[in-house]
Design a protein that fits this description.
Strand content: 15-25%
Oligomer: single chain
Radius of gyration: 19 Å
CATH topology of the largest domain: Nucleotidyltransferase, domain 5
GO molecular function, one term: DNA binding
Keywords: DNA recombination, DNA-binding, Transposition
Protein name: IS6 family transposase
InterPro entries: DDE_dom, Integrase_cat-core, IS_Transposase, RNaseH-like_sf, RNaseH_sf, Transpos_IS6
Order of helices and strands: HHHHEEEHEHEHHH
Function: Involved in the transposition of the insertion sequence.
Strand order of the largest sheet: 3-2-1-4-5
Largest sheet: 5 strands, mixed
């Protein structure tokens, strides 16, 4: 398959092997399809055609099933070795269509452009913004400064969090300083576009986490003692 090797399933960690137990395709094919789907601007039917050109017949629904089953394993492994981010965050939200309705992907990057965290929410309000900040802080530690745009909901969420802290987070409202996160949205939206919207909130959440994961790997946010240089190999190494 080009950039993956024939991988014996018996060498996989127990949790991964259990998930793959009923997936009756070669593991290298499964992993290649999962990575391509979250790494490039491809639809499921694009992948079905690309595999057919390689003499592998599979249904696009199989690829979707593989993504939903495996991406959470990749994300869990990545979280353990994600590089620390800076303490000056730029936070913003972007729009993603789920079942024909707009939902909100909350995201932040540090001043170097490294992804802090992400969270898909059904609503764009104070509660959603607060939930995002709580998740991001739990995973990455407290920031010194958070820059947001003129959104009153994001400001209100931060102000509420500050009432519970001895050392408050410094809040800046500056659209110009937030250009870095707005530009970073594009890398995610470019991959999402061919998917033509998501069929369920759960699937959207999982697939978006895979896209964000691959984006962070490309940005060098994965600690790797083996000094792997190629992004594809870094991705596969998470569960092997």
């Amino acid at each position: 398959m080009g950039d993956t090797k024939k991988i014996p399933r018996k060498t996989l960690p127990d949790g991964v092997g259990k998930v793959l137990k009923r997936l009756h395709y070669p593991l290298d094919v499964i992993l290649l399809c999962v990575r391509w789907y979250v790494a490039y601007s491809l639809s499921l039917r694009n992948l079905e055609e690309m595999m057919a050109e390689r003499g592998i017949e599979l249904d696009h629904s199989s690829v979707h099933r593989w993504v939903i089953k495996l991406v959470p394993l990749f994300e869990k492994a990545f979280r353990r070795i994600k590089r620390p981010v800076g303490r000056s965050w730029r936070m913003d939200e972007t729009y993603v269509k789920v079942k024909g309705h707009w939902k909100y992907l909350y995201r932040a990057v540090d001043k170097e452009g490294n992804t802090v965290d992400f969270l898909l929410r059904a609503h764009r309000d104070k509660a959603a913004a607060r939930r995002y900040f709580e998740k991001a802080i739990a995973q990455n530690g407290e920031p010194e400064t958070v820059t947001v745009d003129k959104s009153g909901a994001n400001l209100a969420a931060l102000e509420t969090l500050n009432t519970e802290r001895e050392t408050p987070i410094r809040i800046r409202q500056n659209k110009y300083l937030n250009n870095i996160v707005e530009q970073d949205h594009r890398a995610v939206k470019r991959i999402v576009k061919p998917m033509m919207g998501f069929k369920s909130f759960r699937c959207a959440r999982i697939i978006l986490s895979g896209i964000e994961l691959m984006h962070m790997i490309r940005k060098g946010q994965m600690q790797d003692k083996r000094d792997i240089k190629i992004a594809a190999e870094k991705f596969y190494s998470l569960i092997m």
